[in-house]
Amino acid sequence: MHDQAFPLCVDLDGTLIRSDLLIESTLGLVRRNPLNILRCGVWLLRGKAAMKREIAARSEIDVALLPYDERVVARLRESTRHRVLCTASDRKYAEAVAAHIGVFDEVIASDGEHNLAGANKAHALVERYGERGFDYAGNATPDLKVWRSARRAIVVNASAGLAASAAAVTQVDEVLPREGGGLRVWFKALRLHQWLKNLLVFLPLLAAHKLFQFDAALLSLLAFVAFGLCASGVYVLNDLLDLESDRNHPRKRLRPFAAGTLPLASGLVAAPLLTIAAFVVALAVGAKFALVLFGYWLLTLAYSFRLKRIAMLDTIVLAALYTLRIIAGTAAIHSALSFWLLAFSMFLFLSLALVKRYTELQSLVQQGRDRTDGRGYEVDDLGLIASLGGSSGYLAVLVLALYINSAASEALYRHQQVLWLLCPLLLYWVSRVWFKAHRGLMDDDPIVFALTDYVSRVVLVLCAVVIVAAI
């Protein structure tokens, strides 16, 4: 019998799209209120289909932004067969996706009473088209129950083992191998380049002139690793919570979870594991350091769920998070906190946080948009942010100047007056950062820019030479 006589049934999650709509919609609810996770547990008591319906009723997904597998979409558009979207996702999302793609003749989905997954999906398709009366495209182990009743299988984004299992129960017509994944993609998701920020934990070690004390250096190194693991865990969680807004961003849309190059479920596993590993290392450093890291973790969670959506408060929180790294570095080596260092860092990092927002708003101007997605800023705020950011950077230089002339500086440096050379260097660097931002040449993250920009590295080396000369 000709292929045209057999409908082509296509799964949604993991097959037509490189994502999972149940996870996405649940994350949308949790982002609005973390306590909604408890409501999901209550709904689950009535069955998975009922839970999906309740979540779908309260969570919107922009289906136009979903990461579609273009290989599957192309085959659907080329086909003239009866095409069916058959999914365990709630009907609300399935019909929205079908309308967006515009090629499906029929939609079969979970309806609040029946969860159309595995055996239930197989039963529904056999009831409509008969045993071996349809072809089915799927991607996961539960799809084996459907392939047992299908005439042919199309295996999408699955392991070689699953493709072999599918071949054991039916004829495999085509295998579309999994794209993405791998260490490089995970390194991107964990944002290992952002670990550069955690070099700030070494600053108290340098300020206290303990660089060559082995025990203190080792504790600082462990503190660096702990902060890196903790930050990566938060980055993963933050990316999971910001899927839609990231997909609206010209660069962030390429992040692994937003782009679908990593499965959302793996992120839900990675985030807590990274956090646990961070605190295991932190406890090896010491209880006081672990307490500071816990405070950092709580503040980052508050930032991810709510504070980043409050204009201006978000930048103060970002500055505080950078400063917490310095506080943690001090706790790691059991040193005393320096008022001068904390004041300097707070003003400097507030300036850099405002650079970050300034750069994002400039990007909106280039896109022809007038406000950020859920951030509370408008493009008209550019002038105000530049004024506040530049002022904050110069206040950091003022704090440095006052420190140089203080008794605290005199106690640590034999040639205290040499330190004055730091002021023009820092004035130039702050001015240059804002100059680059004004011209639209700034990286999304000014801290990473500061550590990778050639001129910034030259300024850093010169500052180091000045400090050594002052000692």
Main traits of this protein?
elongated; Rossmann fold; 6 strands; 2 domains; Tetracycline Repressor, domain 2; 61% helix; 7% strand; 471 residues; alpha/beta; 6-stranded parallel sheet
Task: Please provide a written account of the structure.
This protein is α/β, with parallel strands linked by helices and 471 residues long. It folds into two domains: 3-176, HAD superfamily/HAD-like (Rossmann fold), CATH 3.40.50; 190-392, Orthogonal Bundle (Tetracycline Repressor, domain 2), CATH 1.10.357. The protein is built from 22 helices and six strands. A six-stranded parallel β-sheet has the order 3-2-1-4-5-6, with helices on both faces. Strand 5 (152-156), helix 8 and strand 6 form a beta-alpha-beta unit. Helix 16 runs antiparallel to helix 17 (339-367). The longest helix has 29 residues, at 339-367. The protein is elongated and about 90 Å long. The N and C termini lie far apart (88 Å). The mean pLDDT is 90.
Task: Give me a quick take on this structure.
This protein has 471 residues and is an alpha/beta fold.
